[in-house]
Amino acid sequence: MRLDEFVDGLERDDAAERRRLAEEKSYEITEYIDRVADRFEDAIQDETMVGSTSPSVFVGTSNYPSVSTGVLSPVGDEDRAGDYVTDDSWYRQGYSIDDVFQRRTGLMNSQQRVDVDAPGRHAGHTTPAVADAWDGMLGAQREVAIAGNPVDVEIGLDGSPDLGIDVDDIAAPTGPNVAAESVDLTENPYVPRPVKKTLEDDDWQAEGAMTYLYRRGFDVYDIREILSAGALGQGENRRLVPTRWSITAVDDTIGKYLRGTLRNATSIDETQVWYNEFMGNRFWIVLTPGRWEFELVEMKAPGSVWNPTVDSGYWLASASEGYEGRTSYVEETAGAYYASRLGVLEHLAEEGRQAKCLVLREVTDEYWAPVGVWQIRESVRNAFDPDGGRDVPGAEIPPTLAGKHATAETFRDAITGLESQLPISMGELRRKSDMVAGIQSQLSDF
């Protein structure tokens, strides 16, 4: 497809966009929270115990290394516990921001405060080092994390749930928190054989174990759970990893592994432009011939998440790496960088090719609340999917151009061809993007 035809397919109906935005910003979540409160009252017996099914775990960052750690479990909807797990299925089902918040507010976080890596005390009891913990809260949490399916649990509560919502730019939002006296499994969970192998090998570094699980078909969501619960790494070095950190760590580790597989790969032979949009985020992915190089440029609209002032103009951020990768953590674009890079590298690894890549992310004011970097990862992944990633009956229709791409003669032609679609001027983009600035440098050589 020619780039001009591709761009024509991106024309938007402004009136329809405003109607969709008004519907999206209906804030039905406030009414849903009231229903959640009623459901919690019905489910909690004698204000002390609740039986549920836990599909995942959560480890906080506040007051690190003494962190709040616990299991997440739906209350009153145990039969559908798997639907509450943050993973690629949320994209396939075309979730809205309201859908995400409804799922997350329906999960109770039963938690205790523990030290991430050493014996300590909580609720009047001494806890073992994380590496040896298979009893109590830490043990239950690790069992939930390594299980192949949601696990039935019985929770002893200490007080009533706090029905507030915590939001984050990397992790999915978290719902009601409640202090837990105890968490006990009421069944023996099924643990996949590859996970058992990583647990039994005390000499296996965490990076190698993560790569092994990925190669065995475990997605980054599964690996993140296991890492966060302190179930990966060398023996006594195993420790709890805050959820926020584990998400980025897994994206980065798997990304480095995939980049390594492409070091000697043949370059793509044409400049390609791919596109996807989801939850008020628009992504343009430009691949061009050459050795691996990557850059993410974020353009956040006034009134969108993390740029709430409506008259402030677009907030720009960028980060990049060359053929040898990065030696420091990305500060400006944080987890979005590693999530988008992973999606690109998975596509290139599947094709057995390498390329230079520029990802342009526009965050529109439709993105009124953060849902986590999973939506970035899945948007980039599914930009390359011929089916747009929507294979669930009744799911929202994917963007027309998802899974398709346009070609351009050069990288410069691709960028200039997209200029009419970008919310900022070419001058602004050139000042923020090293790759786009390089176009001008190359022209000045003649």
Automatic annotation (TrEMBL):
<comment type="function">
    <text>Involved in DNA damage repair.</text>
</comment>
<keyword id="KW-0234">DNA repair</keyword>
<dbReference type="InterPro" id="IPR006979">
    <property type="entry name" value="Nre_C"/>
</dbReference>
<feature type="domain" description="Archaeal Nre C-terminal">
    <location>
        <begin position="321"/>
        <end position="385"/>
    </location>
</feature>
<feature type="domain" description="Archaeal Nre N-terminal">
    <location>
        <begin position="21"/>
        <end position="307"/>
    </location>
</feature>
<keyword id="KW-0227">DNA damage</keyword>
<protein>
    <recommendedName>
        <fullName>DNA repair protein</fullName>
    </recommendedName>
</protein>
<dbReference type="Pfam" id="PF04895">
    <property type="entry name" value="Nre_C"/>
</dbReference>
<dbReference type="GO" id="GO:0006281">
    <property type="term" value="P:DNA repair"/>
</dbReference>
<dbReference type="InterPro" id="IPR053546">
    <property type="entry name" value="Nre_DNA_repair"/>
</dbReference>
<dbReference type="InterPro" id="IPR033167">
    <property type="entry name" value="Nre"/>
</dbReference>
<dbReference type="Pfam" id="PF04894">
    <property type="entry name" value="Nre_N"/>
</dbReference>
<comment type="similarity">
    <text>Belongs to the Nre family.</text>
</comment>
<dbReference type="InterPro" id="IPR006978">
    <property type="entry name" value="Nre_N"/>
</dbReference>
